[in-house]
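Title: Comparing notes on inverse folding

I've been comparing how different people in this forum approach sequence design from structure. To keep things fair, I'm posting one structure and asking everyone to reply with a full sequence. Here's the target:
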């Protein structure tokens, strides 16, 4: 056998071995890919099965709430309805929610769980559900049943291997979900697009002048970059690293952000609080009280609330960030203030008095101070409250009672340390 022949045989042997290895790797990859696909399909099928069970239980819950008349049974059924919806939400965590039946079910179940809590409150406070609520519940049931059927169909198709997990994100048949307006965080009135939006009436040129006066620059230094609608429509303008939003109705500055590079600084949180308070005075926000602040090595971010007489309005909030390397304001937002502040408002007569704080504090808590405040429920309803600052061991709290009726409204944890003051 010649050298040339031996070399040819070696080359062919190496090629065959390499091909065998590549085929083995490819086959292994295909097997792994098929295994992953089957696992994903099984996971999706189990998740959809759990969602189907939750929707079935929720349908029964809706029917019970429509049937019962006693406050006790209404309250119990509303709680069961909330639990069923919450279980469905948890199961949906295994599925892609970019669109289609999975997204539709996720949005619906989140709102249904929140709405069920509102039903429980209504049954407890009124002793019955109003005719309007019963009508809404019937509309929910009419919407619920086709959605439940769509989830069942998706579950069957995935289990049978007729569709892949990713295909669940395809757009589903559009159903009109009832508009739910109630005292809760997922109420339709809190989301832009579900209610009528205010019109933008201020010309862009006037918004530009307003922003220029606020910043202390020439209007020519600002460039309009567009507008947005929503609950508070705004014009947007820029000037180098600075971006400004101006209310398209009143011309007031809604927000400002200076995106300049920040360095660690020596400005103390106390100095930053003073700078922020003085700034608010100059831009037309008198009577603001700092209620929380957070410090890091570059900024101190402070939230102020409006104080009128002996009342603190938490929703009338303005937030600012002060740079610790220069003491300048690098972020400002009065969005919450502009959405909630009303001139000449009357919170109502208080029956509870601050001097009663010691007898009204939670059992075991040490009373520190009491004052009046206006706070919001999850659905945005403002309540006149007596705010008690209390402590239990090393922990401090803010405890709220309805100032007119004495009902409990909430309990929040108060954190105060070297990083700042936070209410959670």
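Reply #1:
Here's my take.
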């Amino acid at each position: 056998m010649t050298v040339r022949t031996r070399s040819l045989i070696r080359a062919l042997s190496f090629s065959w071995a390499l091909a065998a290895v590549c085929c083995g790797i490819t086959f292994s990859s295909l097997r792994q890919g098929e295994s992953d696909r089957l696992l994903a399909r099984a996971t999706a099928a189990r998740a959809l099965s759990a969602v189907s069970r939750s929707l079935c239980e929720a349908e029964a819950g809706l029917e019970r709430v429509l049937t019962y008349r006693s406050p006790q049974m209404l309250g119990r059924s509303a709680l069961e309805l909330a639990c069923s919806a919450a279980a469905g939400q948890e199961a949906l965590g295994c599925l892609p929610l970019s669109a289609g039946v999975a997204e539709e079910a996720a949005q619906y179940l989140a709102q249904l769980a929140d709405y069920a809590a509102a039903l429980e409150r209504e049954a407890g406070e009124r002793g019955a559900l109003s005719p309007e609520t019963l009508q809404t519940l019937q509309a929910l049931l009419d919407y619920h049943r086709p959605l439940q059927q769509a989830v069942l169909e998706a579950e069957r198709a995935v289990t049978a291997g007729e569709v892949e997990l990713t295909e669940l994100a395809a757009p589903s048949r559009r159903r009109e979900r009832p508009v739910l307006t109630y005292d809760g965080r997922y109420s339709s009135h809190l989301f832009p697009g579900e209610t009528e939006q205010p019109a933008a009436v201020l010309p862009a040129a006037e918004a530009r002048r307003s922003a220029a006066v606020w910043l202390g620059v020439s209007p020519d230094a600002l460039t309009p970059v567009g507008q947005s609608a929503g609950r508070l429509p705004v014009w947007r303008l820029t000037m180098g690293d600075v971006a400004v939003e101006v209310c398209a109705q009143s011309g007031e500055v809604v927000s400002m952000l200076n995106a300049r590079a920040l360095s660690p600084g020596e400005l103390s949180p106390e100095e930053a609080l003073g700078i922020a308070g003085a700034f608010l005075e100059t831009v037309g926000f008198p009577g603001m009280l700092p209620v929380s602040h957070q410090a890091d090595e570059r900024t101190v971010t402070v939230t102020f609330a409006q104080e009128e007489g002996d009342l603190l309005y938490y929703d009338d909030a303005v937030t600012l960030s002060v740079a610790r390397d220069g003491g300048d304001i690098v972020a400002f937002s009065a969005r919450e203030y502009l959405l909630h502040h009303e001139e000449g408002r009357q919170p109502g007569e208080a029956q509870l008095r601050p001097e009663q704080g010691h007898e009204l504090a939670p059992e075991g808590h040490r009373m520190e101070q009491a004052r009046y405040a206006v706070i919001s429920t999850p659905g945005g309803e403002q309540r006149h409250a007596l705010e008690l600052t209390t402590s239990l061991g090393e922990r401090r709290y803010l405890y709220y009672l309805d100032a007119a009726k004495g009902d409990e409204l909430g309990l929040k944890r108060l954190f105060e340390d070297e990083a700042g003051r936070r209410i959670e």
